[in-house]
Amino acid sequence: MRNYIAVVFDDTNKAYEGLHAIWQLDTDGAITVHGTTVVHRNDWGEYQVDSKDTHPALATAVGVGVGALIGALAGPAGAAVGAARGAAIGAASGGAVGAVADLNRADTRDESRYETAWVLGAGQSAVIGDVSEDSTFSIDERMRRLGGTVYRRAWSAVRDDKWFDDRSLYPYDGYLSPYDYYLYPYEYVPPYSPWWAY
Amino acid sequence: MQDTQVKDAIDQVRSATQQLHKAISDAAAKRGGAAKADLQAVPQMAKAAVDSIKGSMATQNETAKKRLSEARTYLEAAGKHAADGVKSSGKEFQTAVRQTIADARAAAQKVSEAVAAKRTAAGATSAK
């Protein structure tokens, strides 16, 4: 089953450990990773996506809507139970299909931003991933050991969100959603860390 | 033995498409002439990835084959847009770079979907 995941960590270094662990699971064949990125929220509530210094033509698209993405992953159900560290949202049922929170469409940007505010607190970092997994166990267990909180939502449910209809945010018509645009298809660790991460 | 060969082939394709996306992203992060110089290598890289796909298609399941075929289309588009970019400048160049990145990203996406399809099929077989 294909899912979007967000794994929230208190510490930036832990987030990168989490990023590496996710790609290691891919290498082991336990999951298949289609793309990942690391997002930070600073003490003023602003979001930053770790990325390359891009060509000016691309710069404005990088990071657009990342807060909305995290909010879309968590959804209203996440708001109710998201405080449980190490718990996978909706994972109690155990099965791969049942493990994904079947959320109503949260879908408006305002609502997603509101939800994001509690999912990713000031000073926290999150690994965002687009993954195929036959069971949620591998990611949940590995992230739990690292102290991460896993949010998960079916890829198809997120893709159906109205948010994806905003073509003005696409790098060029018809190809990629903003989400795809900043999810690297390989493990990417920037050569620098933001100053506020120290 | 055969499974090992199949895994190697599709993993090689995946690695090639990821490297292509990385190379284009690196090129896009540069300015002016440096970006264009890096872009010149992209059509050849895309062609090599397409050749890898051709070599690995026959041994895949139907879903993986379909994904690889889609990846091939994106790779060919990436090569074309990169070649267009090398010959252009200004806004046209920027557009070509954006299109090349998007094509390479889509190709990498399709190949990883093929890998996922293969792994899922292998898991279902071993579970029986």
Topology overview:
The complex is a heterodimer of chains A (198) and B (128).
Chain A lengths: L1 E8 L2 H17 L2 E11 L5 E3 L6 H4 L6 H16 L27 H11 L5 E9 L3 H10 L2 E6 H5 L18 H5 L16
Antiparallel strand pairs in A: 1-4, 1-5, 2-3, 2-4
Chain B lengths: L1 H27 L3 H8 L2 H16 L4 H25 L3 H38 L1
Helix pairs in contact in B: 1-2, 1-3, 1-5, 3-4, 4-5
Structure description:
Chain A has 198 residues and is α+β, with helices and mostly antiparallel strands. Chain A has one domain (2-193). Chain A has helices at residues 12-28, 56-59, 66-81, 109-119, 137-146, 155-159, 178-182, and strands spanning 2-9, 31-41, 47-49, 125-133, 149-154. A 5-stranded antiparallel β-sheet of chain A has the order 3-2-4-1-5, sandwiched between helices. In chain A, strand 2 and strand 3 (47-49) form a beta hairpin. In chain A, helix 1 runs antiparallel to helix 5 (137-146). Chain A is globular and about 40 Å long. With 128 residues, chain B is an all-alpha fold. Chain B has a single domain (2-127), classed as IL-4 antagonist (De novo design) like domain (Four Helix Bundle (Hemerythrin (Met), subunit A), Up-down Bundle), CATH 1.20.120.660. In chain B, helix 1 (2-28) runs antiparallel to helix 2 (32-39) and helix 4 (62-86) packs antiparallel against helix 5 (90-127). The longest helix of chain B has 38 residues, at 90-127. Chain B is elongated and about 55 Å long. The mean pLDDT of chain B is 88. At the A-B interface, strand 2 and helix 2 of A face helix 1 and helix 5 of B.
